[in-house]
Amino acid sequence: MHVLARSCYESVSVLDPVSLEGAVPADMGAKLLWLFLASALVAYYIYSPMPEDFDEPWKVMLISASFRTTGHLAEVADRLGLMHYMEALMLISTFQYIAPTSDENVTVTDTEFSNVPVRLFVPRRASDGLRRAVIFFHGGGWCVGRAGMKSYDHLARWTSNMLNAVVVSVDYRLAPKYHFPVQFEDVYSVTKFFLQSNVLSQYGVDPDRVCVVGDSAGGNLAAAVAQQLLQDSEVKTKLKAQALLYPALQTLDLNLPAYQDNENKPLLSKSLMVRFWSEYFTSDPSLREAMASNTHIPVESSHLFQFVNWSNWLPEELKKDHVYTSPVYGSSELVGKYPGLLDRRAAPLLASDAQLHGLPLSYVLTCEHDVLRDDGVMYARRMRAVGVPVTHVHAKDAFHGAMMFVSGAAELAVGHRLLNGYIEWLNENL
Ligand SMILES: *[C@@H]1O[C@H](CO)[C@@H](O)[C@H](O)[C@H]1NC(C)=O
Ligand SMILES: *[C@@H]1O[C@H](CO)[C@@H](O)[C@H](O)[C@H]1NC(C)=O
Fold first, then answer.
1. Ligand 1 centre from 157 Cα, in Å?
2. Quick check: 6 pLDDT over 60?
3. pLDDT tens-digit map of 385-401
4. Candidate from 253, 312, 381 with most ligand 2 atoms within 8 A of CB, to mutate
5. From atom 2 of ligand 1, which residue's Cα is the shortest distance away?
6. Pocket of ligand 1 (CB under 6 A)
7. Mean pLDDT, to the nearest integer, of 309-336?
8. Which CATH architecture has domain 91-250+346-429?
9. How confident is the model over 252-268, as a mean pLDDT?
10. Most buried residue, 134, 201, 261, 292, by CB count within 10 Å?
11. Is the pLDDT of residue 19 over 50?
12. How many Å apart are CA 273 and CA 255, to the nearest integer?
């Protein structure tokens, strides 16, 4: 923004009609010059170098620019005191909202499970036996997104139709109005409600074929739910599987190689992720500041770093030339105020090996150009190390959120590929 403002100002002094005299009338010359400068500015704003392995770099650049623009507008609205930054971002979810609409394949209704709103997708086609079920948690940094957003509605509908499965897409409460553990508790109570045998049979669901799925912050919630269910003696039905799509899994180290390599890659910058993480716990800016400098964890919690120690858990090709340095510790005040930071319901990677043991069949999708890449990579490796069967798909040519771009003008080949791979896995394993 600063650079933009400056070049705008400089362009004013460049505009000197006298030098244009002769070739074209001064007035028209000035207009042309303005047009040229405006286009250059727009191009400058939109243009951002894209990794070479992106298939459709220009399309990704436009998608990325429109997200950045929204972010900047939200920032302006926040600074002017018009609305909270996250509420401004939430307007996108509102623009993208579609009402529950059944089609020839799937019956779609909005209802409530355990007092939490859900969008329910039930296939129309007859089933020989009991159906499979997917409990889905949307992404959006615990702050934005909703089940009725076009892209999430489409994903759930597609999943329901392709797998002949019941899909429950949960509209959990969001920050900044609600902080941790509300988001977790909402998705957990829906999951527990749905896993009751009378509810499963009401929807014709096979209790042995239920999974949880989430993307991004939703992947965080899915991982946390799967862990919590392992120790909940009230729940008799066990999950068959969990699918974590570019999940966020830890708060401890926000300077992992993935954060350094992908600080400004499309859709999710490091600063936005830091903002989402801190907003999950509090709107107090001091947490965000400490997280941005990665000094939010006190030395008393140093034993937890073994679970996110990338020096041990990342493969060589992701370590590249990064050099491991010990954490920089901060004061214990923040963790004291916001203990959720160290809670594995918020940071599933902080589970001990014993707590990971017994997790269901797992699908983990990570993208090379994503600040959350290493969270997923380390979780896949740690689960595998304790004997959990894990399918880890690492997409070298993808960015955070790529699976959402499978319809409309922003359709991407990589989005289709990721979606198909994920659906195929569910079809074979659920
Ligand atoms: C219904 O399912 C068929 C077969 O999978 C598909 O070709 C068609 O596009 C689906 N209709 C809608 C509205 O999604
Ligand atoms: C991380 O792992 C490296 C290599 O095993 C080790 O030298 C270092 O002490 C570990 N750091 C922490 C904080 O666990």
1. 10
2. no
3. 999 999 999 999 999 99
4. 312
5. 105
6. 103-105, 161
7. 94
8. 3-Layer(aba) Sandwich (3.40)
9. 95
10. 134
11. no
12. 11
| Position with higher pLDDT, 4 vs 239 | 239
pTM: 0.90
Ligand nearest, relative to CA of residue 311:
2
ω into 298 cis (within 30 of 0): no
Residues in contact with 4: Cβ distance below 8 Å, sequence separation at least 6, in sequence order: 41, 44, 45
Q: What percent of the chain has pLDDT over 70?
A: 92
Ligand nearest to the CA of 156: 1
Cα 269 to ligand 1 centroid, rounded to whole Å = 36
Q: Whose Cα sits closest to atom 3 in ligand 2?
A: 311
* Ligand 1 atom closest to residue 105's alpha carbon, by position in its atom list: 1
How does pLDDT run across 149-195, given as a tens digit for each residue?
A: 999 999 999 999 999 999 999 999 999 999 999 999 999 999 999 99
Q: Which residues are catalytic?
A: 216, 370, 400
Structure tokens at 227: 């862990």
Ligand having the closest approach to the CA of 159: 1
Which residues make beta-bridge pairs with 113? 116
Residue 302 alpha carbon, nearest atom of ligand 2: 13
> In the chain, what percentage of residues exceed pLDDT 90?
77
DSSP string, 359-372: --EEEEEEEEE-TT
Q: What residues flank ligand 2, with Cβ below 6 Å?
A: 305-306, 309, 311-312, 326-327
Provide CB contacts within 8 A for 228, sequence distance 6+: 188, 345
Question: What average pLDDT score do residues 201-227 get?
Answer: 98
Length of the chain: 430
Q: Is the peptide bond before 176 cis (omega within 30 degrees of 0)?
A: yes
Specify the domain boundaries for CATH 3.40.50.1820 within the chain: 91-250+346-429
